[in-house]
Amino acid sequence: MGSPSAQPMVALLAALLYFKPGISSDTARAATDPRKPWSKATLQSRISELRNRLGTDPDGNPFLPRDRTGTYRLSPTTRCDWTRFTQLAEHGLTKGPQDGAGIADLEAALDLVRGRPFGGADLAWAAARIQEILVRITDVTHTLATWHRTAPRPDLTAARRAVTRGLDIDDTAEILYQDWTVRCSAVMGAK
Questions:
Q1: pLDDT for 116-131, tens place per residue?
Q2: Backbone angles phi and psi of 173, in degrees to 5
């Protein structure tokens, strides 16, 4: 599996290949660590490790096929948590809070979030994507907190849990602080 210190870099390499398919070896080497681009040998080693970690699909095709053209591209069947997050968010927002179906989808989407996008790494190639992800997470969090708070039987604990989770991901999201304030006001008014 490679050294433990290389594992986050292999994960970032996987994200790079997922979000920027068909990149060249030179682009990949520079994008993974702009301050100290990887050597060709390091990239090849990490590509091999990633290929081994990803394995093959049910038909035996590698998720990271070998490419003799000097570009890297994951199999089109490759999926990541971000893909699933956006699917769940879209379904949940479409269903709405009625009958709890939309709430369940938004909670499932938020459950996929395990920290700041790309581990908080400062990556030029991912800057716009990171912003998009943070906005989407904030939107889901705000909507979920609002639906919990305004339900016929408000669940303020669930609203607080969603807001806390969202602030753990983006502590600059002003709307989540507003949600927190509204939630605290609702609790105080209930007493």
A1: 898 888 888 999 999 9
A2: -80, 100
